[in-house]
Amino acid sequence: MLPDARALRQTIEALAFENILRPTPGGWTVGGLTIRAPHRLQASGRLRLLDDPRDATGGVLDADALGAALAKAGHDPGTLLAAMRRSAHFLRAAGPVPADRQSLTGLALEASLIEGHPYHPGFKTRAGFSDADNAAFGPEGGQPIVPVWLAVDPTLVTRAGTDPAQGWAQPGASRFIRGSGATCSATRRCGR
User: Fold this and answer.
1) pTM of the full predicted structure?
2) Hey, which end of the chain has fewer CB within 10 Å, N or C?
């Protein structure tokens, strides 16, 4: 499925689930626009479009027509349309899903998972991220992420439950706070 079609389908699915679209036989209406698409209702109550949405004349529906209808119905579609377009752009930039993905592990597998959330209309929006940010920080870019460890005086920390850092640092590993001269370790209190 083409990226723009996927973004539009997911948006219509979400709008129908949220009751922004009014059900009619064979589809929905909003702001004078009739949307028709074969679909099925899932056990979760969400619906899944089985083909591209079409207008009442049978023409393929596009994001601009949906946006105009939402505006006519009193909604502000600007952010939603921007999220749809950004997600479609992201999918185009990511390229096709690797054919050998089932054989991948670790970072290579994470980098190959380009599809995003299956129900969110802005499934790859990442508002505020440029294309360069996506390549550098999104898992699809395949760049390793190195956690930055900060030493904190244990008397200043209140913890409950399990240690979220467990398994990241080696037991007894010493950490240094840049510029402070303080170090901490798992076996010794923080100090200078």
Assistant:
1) 0.69
2) C
